[in-house]
Amino acid sequence: MDKSITLPPDEIFRNLENAKRFAIDIGGSLTKLAYYSTVQHKVAKVRSFDHSAKVSLQETDGDPLYEISVQEEITARLHFIKFENAYIETCLDFIKDHLVNTETKVIKATGGGAHKFKDLIEKKLKLKVDKEDEMTCLIKGCNFVLKNIPHEAFVYAKHADSEFRFQHTHPDIFPYLLINIGSGVSIVKVEAEDKFERIGGSSIGGGTFWGLGALLTKTKRFDELLQLASKGQHTNVDMLVKDIYGGAYGSLGLTGDLIASSFGKSATTDKEFSKEDMAKSLLHMISNDIGQLACLYAKLHNLTRVYFGGFFIRGHPVTMHTITYSINFFTKGEVQALFLRHEGYLGAIGAFLKGAEEDNPNQYSWGENYAGSSGLMSVSPELNPIQRARSGTFDMLEMDRLERQLVNLPLLQDATSYIPDTVDLTEDALAREYWLYCFEEALDGNT
Amino acid sequence: MALCGVADTGSHSMDKSITLPPDEIFRNLENAKRFAIDIGGSLTKLAYYSTVQHKVAKVRSFDHSAKETDGDPLYEISVQEEITARLHFIKFENAYIETCLDFIKDHLVNTETKVIKATGGGAHKFKDLIEKKLKLKVDKEDEMTCLIKGCNFVLKNIPHEAFVYAKHADSEFRFQHTHPDIFPYLLINIGSGVSIVKVEAEDKFERIGGSSIGGGTFWGLGALLTKTKRFDELLQLASKGQHTNVDMLVKDIYGGAYGSLGLTGDLIASSFGKSATTDKEFSKEDMAKSLLHMISNDIGQLACLYAKLHNLTRVYFGGFFIRGHPVTMHTITYSINFFTKGEVQALFLRHEGYLGAIGAFLKGAEEDNPNQYSWGENYAGSSGLMSVSPELNPIQRARSGTFDMLEMDRLERQLVNLPLLQDATSYIPDTVDLTEDALAREYWLYCFEEALDGVVKRAIASQKDQPEAVERAEKFRQKYRHKLQTLRHQPFAYGSLTVRSLLDTREHCLNEFNFPDPYSKIKQKENDMALKYYLKVVKSVEELSWEQRQFNLVKGLLAGNVFDWGAKAVSDVLESDPEFGFEQAKQQLQERPWLVDAYNQWIERLKGPPHKCALFFVDNSGIDIILGVFPFIRELLIRGTEVVLASNSGPALNDVTNSELQILTERIAAMDPVIHAALKEDRLALVQNGSSSPCLDLRKLMLCEVPLRLDKVLATVVRERGTDLVIIEGMGRAIHTNYYAMLSCESLKLAVIKNSWLADRLGGKIFSVVFKYEVPSKAQGQH
């Protein structure tokens, strides 16, 4: 966490020299920086030779049909970088040193930490911090990713062949419910681009899991608490229906394994409970509660698309699983819990868009740049702890602006159900295996 | 009684060998007929049905036709045995279950009982023990069904059952008036977990939701966080804590309110949010408080969402998390207010702990159709709300918290309401709610305590021939004094405290110790004396001019009402000066204009056509009824108005009872041809009002049409005769109750204020006169 850490600048704050517009979203533990930059690309151009000059009685046999040249082209790109708050000063210094463009006078800021770090930012960057409403940015960002990034939303199914089932982008994203699980929970109904309402909330959120978890297990790190939870048995701590009635309570439709009382067993027994079991019970308690509230609000407002976000969810299979389970239980499968690939960036994207509104970014189409983006779950604590230590520190998303607006082929029979790809390799493991191998094999060659 | 265990051993231990004070707890066990038991996680609730032998005072006319012996009393008073039905409910800690079962076994005489209905989570755990000890077959009943059945029963049968809790208000408990239509409602039962049940009809309910975050979570997490293992202690900790030390508030994140989202700065953003990132130690109190808020708010929010989804506005909360705990009632109330913005009120129940036991009992008793009867809470035999409150009096609690009781008497008549009430659903009998008026409460409690010696004396005097009456009277004194003391500290113990409930409690306690009618002898003497003056009074009035006569009759009525052994000032005068006579009473009366004076309007009305029928709720025996009421109604009869005299079914103070009135009326008819003819032609009728109280409750209790606590017969009489005038007489009936009652016909409410404090409060002096004559406006509700 040393402030003197050497950043690998080319890899992280790319194209900083042309950066034009900054936005920053400072949460409880992570900072998300957004900027707009132009990229000089080499593009291959082909040009036909002028065959008309000489009357072509004789075709010059050896000449190529057209000419190939490489030219420079300038395109617009959005950069989003996510890093731990601990690095904020180092990052600000780095940005200051590499920022060439001096037209920029203002940085849009949002998130709970925005006012805490305001002075530091202004001092370091010599930019005026312009605070933007957190919820407005969040929703703006959410609308943007849902509209612009294919396969943004997904359903999580722990035991299915493919854990992630991506949703196809739907032209009409409204109305939807966004359940943002940060320290607490905000339940927001979004009806249009600029129309949203916080219809509910709860104080039982990520902060509760973290806070109560820390008190119960003496484990202070959120990730470690989740790790503990993933190994525990909640039935050792929770009182189940069968613990009271000896089995199911059939006439009320309650199965024996249903949790009757969270932590109910610790009320009357004197035995010690394991950290893992308590963490698991806590996780279930909180996830179920949020799931139930989400389902009730969805029903009350007649909404079926429910997205979950916030640090409690962010890239954690454990919480995505418990929330999904809870939603299935309470809606009897009628509502699906949806998660977002770029959920962590919503605030930063929104803040950036607020600043960029005069440019009408929605008029353009944006495409995710796979080369410059870290990809989902690069911060997963489960996948590869070593890899995590590095990539968990900096996570990136880059989006290229396409200069043309793209439209549907009007001849499609049903544009909304149209899926371009024939095989989904996330779902077809055999095909995936083959094609990944195939592309790797082909890497050396020049075919 | 065969039961005579040591009354109060002072033993507060959980020792199984505890000596139970049987007379006080498992009462009337020898006749117990039907048992039900509800065994919860920590408390057992036992219910049984029993019959009680009461002494009742009866009056019987002598055969006067033989020969008129001048010195003989007018009628004979005898005390007879009467058997009434009573429901007993006892609540005690599970630790006592074996002792209690042994006790029951030893004292259960009736052997017809073969089965005990059982419900609650503990029912299957204790099944074998119960069957072994009691030799009764345990018949398990569904817990939720029992709970709902019990809930429906108390909501329908017990006045002031439901209340709103307001911690900082003048009166913490605001009792709800019984509403005839209790459905639909939502019941949130907060036990270990939470069950949310929608109840749509007597037998139609559905568990529409629930939550695992309930009382067990508070207890379990609380125990882990604070190392405190007792639920009560956890609540105590919570009541002392500061949740803001542990919770992350909106202002902790945003430096203030988050205005655009409508979130105030003090709102909890994240429960336990502060313990996530700081390393400091948190106090047990603060953590317990934060936990309590977290759970209460969560339940409140769920309750509110389910209520909205199902369009319900009546939401009752119960379960051990709530039971008698002001701390949780407060946080739940707060939460409901917050989430519904005041649209839904959190309601609690006085007898919430008994619902399962009551329901199980009713399941067993269904063949008897107990709902056909009316049931009344017996104040003498019931512990009252919050007798287990941990906050009020820890020492008292150790004892009374162990055993809590509820007793209900079956009323043999079905009660209906007076069809002449303008709006039966909004009718409230009592004029002053003493739970809300601290000054008035203070005075009346003092007043009833002051009067206690006199009541005890009179009770003993009424049974001079029975030497043990002194001992019983002493027991009565102790019991009633204890009730008064309880009410001083917990005015909400039996619902809204009123002068009526204080009077009724005294009657219940007197009955309890077999003083069914302490005033019987005095009434007899006074009736006897007054009858001798009847003709004289009638004659003197007849000689007057019409205007003078009317005024004299009203004055007579009022003067008669001065004679009231129930009011302290008068009893002082009468005891010191027995010669205090009718004429002197008239002179005592306030000169016109009276405190409330509608006499002129009344006279104007009398100049018009006669009323068709007058219904007269009479008050006292003796001079009042004989020299005040009879001359007055005699004039009405002569005018061509039919008269129905409604008197108490059972004795209360010196009020004339229906059976006494029958004898008196016969005797007057024998002297007075006008009364004789009216009786014969059925222009004068006597009915009983179904009550044994000095006050009068015109409110609906059981039947759904109208709230008058009156005999069905009376209701019929009223309809058939086309009653167009109601006269209510006396402090109890016209001042303490019904002063504001709106009737759909003309009404006279008259009383002499025989209490200087009350007179003072109404802006007058003692012996001030209230003469209220009201005519319903054609367009009702315009004022």
TrEMBL record, chain A:
CC terms in the record's Gene Ontology section: cytosol; nucleus
Transmembrane segments: none
Taxonomy, superkingdom: Eukaryota
Keywords on record: ATP-binding, Coenzyme A biosynthesis, Nucleotide-binding
Any GO BP annotation: coenzyme A biosynthetic process
Annotated CDD domains: ASKHA_NBD_PanK-II_Pank4
Entry's Gene Ontology molecular function annotations: ATP binding; pantothenate kinase activity
Database matches in Pfam families: Fumble (PF03630)
PANTHER family listed in its UniProt record: 4'-PHOSPHOPANTETHEINE PHOSPHATASE (PTHR12280:SF20), PANTOTHENATE KINASE (PTHR12280)
Protein name (database record): Pantothenate kinase 4 (inactive)
Organism name: Cyprinus carpio carpio
TrEMBL record, chain B:
Required co-factors: Ni(2+); Mn(2+)
UniProtKB keywords: Acetylation, ATP-binding, Coenzyme A biosynthesis, Cytoplasm, Hydrolase, Manganese, Metal-binding, Nickel, Nitration, Nucleotide-binding, Phosphoprotein
Keyword Nucleotide-binding: yes
Localization terms from the record: Cytoplasm
GO BP annotations listed: coenzyme A biosynthetic process
Keyword Nucleotide-binding: yes
Residue span, Damage-control phosphatase ARMT1-like metal-binding domain: 448-764
Recorded superkingdom: Eukaryota
Cellular component terms per the entry's GO annotation: cytosol; nucleus
MF terms in GO: ATP binding; hydrolase activity; metal ion binding; pantothenate kinase activity
Transmembrane segment boundaries: none
Main location, first listed in the record: cytoplasm
Catalysed reactions, semicolon-separated: (R)-4'-phospho-S-sulfopantetheine + H2O = (R)-S-sulfopantetheine + phosphate; (R)-4'-phosphopantetheine sulfonate + H2O = (R)-pantetheine sulfonate + phosphate; (R)-4'-phosphopantetheine + H2O = (R)-pantetheine + phosphate
Family: In the N-terminal section; belongs to the type II pantothenate kinase family. Belongs to the type II pantothenate kinase family.
Quaternary state and interactors: Homodimer. Interacts with PKM.
Function: Phosphatase which shows a preference for 4'-phosphopantetheine and its oxidatively damaged forms (sulfonate or S-sulfonate), providing strong indirect evidence that the phosphatase activity pre-empts damage in the coenzyme A (CoA) pathway. Hydrolyzing excess 4'-phosphopantetheine could constitute a directed overflow mechanism to prevent its oxidation to the S-sulfonate, sulfonate, or other forms. Hydrolyzing 4'-phosphopantetheine sulfonate or S-sulfonate would forestall their conversion to inactive forms of CoA and acyl carrier protein.
PANTHER family documented for this protein: 4'-PHOSPHOPANTETHEINE PHOSPHATASE, PANTOTHENATE KINASE
Protein name: 4'-phosphopantetheine phosphatase
Species of origin: Cyprinus carpio carpio
